[in-house]
Design a protein that fits this description.
The chain is mainly alpha-helical. It is built from ten helices and no strands. It starts with a helix and ends in an 18-residue tail after the last helix. The mean pLDDT is 94.
Length: 217
């Protein structure tokens, strides 16, 4: 596991730096000002772009990725299933523990001309952490570990961050929800690999040698 982290500094170092910068902004800036800034930087094209980007954190996308991994290695798909379960349990558990308000409910008595993306159903409760952000960071952290190609890690990080930013852009979450979700997503991916290595890797070594497109003979 230490080698996995060490070999992928091109993903984790930029993430930590951006996470700390975002944390500083969140701590120093009121929620209203945060959302006003995000809400004011919009175009028709970015509305469509971030609506598409938010799909990277949907449950169906996670399941699709598991099926993709299944084609190449059962091991990767199995880890994906574990990660999906772990990330869902943690994020949903925290959502119902904190029960924080989402922007639409938090600002319902505030008079401000908020702009919304057409066709997006706004939710009002269980804001922290962002489930979409959790899923996106979990998925792309797994891709980082599976591909073992540090040169393309910035692409995975960019996709995860884009999916995360889509949540406050669509007025579904606050930036603080992204901080929690991103960290939970990465931790869930790491935990999934550790669980697999401890309980399944030695017992079922054939999982790392086969996939739906791999010769089984």
């Amino acid at each position: 596991m230490k080698n996995l982290l060490k070999n992928n500094l091109s993903f984790f170092v930029p993430f930590i730096l951006m996470w700390l910068v975002c944390l500083g902004w969140v701590l120093q800036t009121p929620k209203f000002e945060q959302m006003v800034w995000i809400n004011s930087h919009r175009t028709i094209w970015s509305d469509t772009f971030f609506w598409c980007a938010t799909q990277l954190g949907e449950g169906w996308f996670f399941v699709t990725m598991i099926l993709v991994w299944l084609v190449f290695k059962y091991e990767q798909a199995f880890i994906g299933v574990i990660a999906f379960a772990v990330s869902t349990l943690i994020s949903q558990g925290l959502k119902f523990s904190f029960q924080t308000l989402r922007p639409s409910e938090f600002f319902k008595d505030v008079s401000y001309p908020w702009k919304y993306v057409s066709g997006v159903e706004l939710h009002g409760f269980n804001s922290f952490p962002s489930g979409h952000t959790t899923s996106a960071f979990c998925i792309f952290t797994l891709w980082v570990f599976f591909t073992k190609k540090p040169m393309i890690n910035p692409i995975f990080l960019t996709l995860a961050i884009t999916a995360a930013y889509s949540r406050p852009y669509l007025f579904q979450h606050f930036p603080e929800d992204l901080l929690g979700g991103s960290m939970i997503g990465i931790i869930s991916a790491i935990l999934a690999i550790k669980i697999y290595q401890r309980y399944f890797e030695t017992k079922y070594p054939q999982l790392s040698q086969k996939g739906l497109l791999v010769n089984r003979h």
